[in-house]
Amino acid sequence: MVKVNEKLHSRPSYKVIFNDRENHFPRQLMKDIRGRLESIYSESRGYSEYKGKNQWAFYLVQNYDKKTKLFLERELLLNQHTYALVVVNTRVTKDMLDYLSLPVQGIVSLSFLSSRCGLVIDSLTQNGIFLEPELHWELSFELSEKKSFHTPIKQFILNKEKITADLSPRDQQVLQLLLEGYNNAQIADKMHFARSTISTIISSLLKKMKANDRTDCTVKAIRNGWVDCQR
Predict the structure, then answer these.
(1) pLDDT confidence of residue 13
(2) Can you tell me the distance from the alpha carbon of 64 to that of 95, in angstroms, rounded to the nearest whole number?
(3) pLDDT tens sequence across 97-111
(4) Strand, helix or coil at 18?
């Protein structure tokens, strides 16, 4: 169940809320979060860039349950200009992916947030989303499990008709190969390009998709509904 006690920290351009009834958020972590946000918002471009969402809410949950989801749904409906991050007090598990059906910006364990606070906050401000790496592949396979528990996926197929981003044919070809798990050298061999050229294409692709890395790129493609499963 979600923690309902709120700790509110305000600055002229943003607010931070910690929903944490049992005080499991370490004081140092709250200090680190506020410090990182203050650094971002104090930059000359900070406020104008992020003012569309000027409130940050960190919801501490123990696990996944329907009451927690309903609580979050009501909270986020009332606070639509909020960066909302679900923070799990234990290990993240696959069933927590259901929280992504809500307008949240990510799911992360308390231990991961404590150790990589700067990475998480920077990703949220730059890309609007952060998902703990352990959940990346869980999300990828969630699509297959909803269709069939017993039949394994042979291949993820990029459906070009479903792509909503401005990706060139070459971008799409590289994205398909990333979905198939090929590394840069293998992609270069398959496309008969220099490795440096492939690196440039992938860098451009990540920017177009606002992805942190190759894994995040494939996860976003699946999450956006661009990918079909071949069995």
Answers:
(1) 67
(2) 6
(3) 888 888 888 899 999
(4) strand
| Structure tokens given for 112 | 């991961």
The answer, yes or no, to whether residue 4 has pLDDT greater than 50, is no
Residue 34 in tokens: 């506020």
Contact 56, 77 (CB under 8 A): no
Q: Which string of DSSP letters, residue by residue, matches 114-155?
A: HHSHHHHHHHHHHHS-EE-HHHHHHHHHHHHHHH-SSS---E
Domain spans in the chain, listed from the N-terminal domain onward: 6-131, 139-230
Closest CA to 155 of 129, 179, 183, 120: 179
What average pLDDT does range 177-195 have in this prediction? 92
Task: Compute the distance between CA of residue 30 and CA of residue 28 in angstroms, rounded to an integer.
Answer: 5
The answer regarding whether domain 139-230 maps to CATH 3.30.240.20 reads no
Distance between CA atoms of residues 17 and 58, nearest Å: 6
Report the alpha-carbon distance of residue 19 to residue 179 in Å, rounded: 37
pTM of the predicted structure, to 2 decimals: 0.57
Q: 3-state class of 194 per DSSP?
A: coil
DSSP notation for 171-190: HHHHHHHHHTT--HHHHHHH
Phi/psi of residue 6, each to 5°?
Answer: -110, 135
Which amino acid appears at position 149 of this protein?
A: F
Q: For the chain, give the percent of residues with pLDDT over 90.
A: 28
CATH number for the region 6-131 comes to 3.40.50.2300
